[in-house]
Amino acid sequence: MRYRLFGRTGLRVSELFLGAMRLPDAPEARRIVDAYADAGGNVIDTASAYGDSESLLGEVLTRRDRFVLATKFTLSRDPGDPNAAGAHRKNLVASLDRSLRRLRTDHVDILWVHTWDPHTPVEETLRALDDLVRAGKIRYVGMSDMPAWTISRADAIAEWKGWTSPAGVQVPYSLVNRDIEREVLPMAEALGLTVAAWGVLDHGALTGSASTDRLSPAGERAAAALADVAGELGATPGQVAIAWSRAQSPAIHPLVGFRSHARVAEAVAALDVRLPDEALAALDAAAPFDAGPYADFVARSARDPHVMGDAEIVGRRAPTAQG
């Protein structure tokens, strides 16, 4: 396992993140965590909304300081209480305190805002997060499942105010769900943010380890292409799916969960799978991505000599429809 820096910080995080949304029973959960750690993995991601799974992680996490422990807040803790959800200070503090009790620790290394709360001013969320960093309850901050403009605005406000800036984003991403390539991924690359990509295996549907009934015709074509490339490379479809996500950007860290420790080694081995150009082309052909007419218009304008003049500009990559 190799390591990268978490966003614009000095925190070292492994190339593969372990998702703890659906841990099985305690003995197997312990084996999963141990197998991941023995392979060099150090980031484990859970959430207040994961309930018993978050508590189970706290039970089996015996090497606490060895890990970069991450959790999330925002989702409702009590549907009948309007203040038990959202990104406001009250819910933030209550959710974090509950997570710390479940995880049996006095701090988490990363706290993600789980999803966008359009009702809470981002300044309130950022200030509350910064207060908790200063109090020693969290170390780093991230944003999950939020529009690109809200994350970039939060980053600018935090820098302006001298508060703790977001260091990463967590978003869904797979061969059949490439929407982040429109704005979120280019934004993350431009701001130097780590991208924790969940759903890279489409919860097993792309790799045959779960029911494929919910796959669309496009998803079925993508799954078939993954299987074809895997056969040519002597890999598994899951390994190819992970390798594909990593090939799209050096900012991407696949976030993968396991029901069995036997699957950990397969996922870790995917980090050494290098997809040749023809394999990447075949996968893109099976699951083409259309950024949309507006993105195409913006990209063309940035290259149009009638807009930018005739001078050739070097030193930065030419813009594409994906940024």
UniProtKB/TrEMBL annotation:
The keyword Oxidoreductase applies. Residues 16-286 form the NADP-dependent oxidoreductase domain. The keyword Oxidoreductase applies. Keywords: Oxidoreductase. This is Aldo/keto reductase.
